[in-house]
User: Fold this.
Amino acid sequence: MRLFQSNSSKILGALFFGLVLVVGLVAANGTMRPSAAADDDKPAASNASGDENSASTDIVQLVADKPHTLFVPAEVRSALGIRKDNVDMFAVAKVPKRTRPLEMPGTTALDPTRLFRIRARFAPSPSSAECVQIGQIAEDPRRSGKTQTVYRELHSGDKVVKGDLLAVFYSVDVGNKKNDLIDAIYQLKLDDIILKRWEEKQAIMPEVQLWTQRRQVVGDINAIERAVSMLRAWGIPEEDIQSVRKDAEAVKPEEAERRLRLHDRSEFDRWARVEIKAPAEGVLIERNLTLNEIVVDNTTILFQISDLGKLFITANCPEDDLPLLQALQESSHGLIPWTVRTVGSPPLSGFIDDVSYLIDPMQHTAVVKGYIQNEQAKLRGGQFIKATVELPAPDDVVEIPANAMIEDGQETVVFVVTDEAKQQYTMRRVELTNRFPNLVFVRSKPFTKEEQLTPEEVEFGLLPREPLRPGERILASGVNELKTALTDRESRARVKNPEGK
Assistant:
């Protein structure tokens, strides 16, 4: 079959190889000598003596008793760059020590666990909450141009600490609910006095009247708890609630009776005041509120505060590499280190926290999530990143230099050093598993009979695949030229000996 594959490109390659050999012989010996290899009838075994001086006049020849094996003398090896300074430069197939990097594109995002969205939960009805004050911060003197301290309203980009005032509201609903709490406390004081007096005279009091009064006291307690629960649900600070209770409980019973009768609302304005404070330290990244604005929707986000000391990372892992990532996750007990690179920052180290169980049907990728430290807040949410995970090398492979093998679209071959003393080198078809800039991984696991050749490959006359084992030496250069010479000589040998097919 190889006879029919000897096309014009192989003939041109053979001519070029012959020219290289002529130049190499002239350089090595100073004069051109007639080559015994030009005579195809000369037995190839006579070239395997191992005597470099006697072989110097010979060029590349087939080795008779070894398939796909060439005898390559020292002068030719020097011309092809295989031999330098009288030393053959061989590559050794090694078990990979380096890992295979898995690079995943992705983006940064604000840490969702440290992003605080602040709303006015006490504004369930229109015109019930009006902003009467915005939190302030000292202006930079370089901006104000004044020596005295000047204050301005908070805006996006300002740093806040926990407890800083963000805004002050006047809320009718909050004021009414606090007054309901006060009224419930006053009513409890009066009902409790009545119950105690009746219990002192229970001998003459109807029993049903005592039960009714006890039920009234319990109702007052429930009214107090109901008002407190509502205020807490609205996010009213606990100190404000306790301040209302303290003021109401300090009122004497007779004064409470008078206030209930007169419906005293002198403290209403004070109770209607609501302060919104920063729940944590961070940077104000969003403000959607202006002075004197009436908040009519309690789902509106008024402020957003984020802790930028840590950023959330999402990266996309190709579906084909997902099994390797999962195997690494199991072997490392869930701790998968990765390195994140982005503009404006050196490489940052971290760990993968989660690998999504859902595959994007459009991109066929899985989302990988994790965090990186951003202590100086130099990075921003939404930046493009490249996350790298060092995957272990696949089992049953060896690494060789990329220039030690040649591919022609049908097969990948290397030249293995069969017998260095006799200058014999065998072409072997191998299977390439991974490719890197300067290295390739080649399968070292033996092939089954079905894996060696497909029916189509048998029809085209390709070599069977063979493993490349650790420690085997191969030629690191001149592979293309030697393959062309071997194919040409095997084709001519078949023409002269058709029975040897």
DSSP finds 14 helices and 27 strands in the chain.
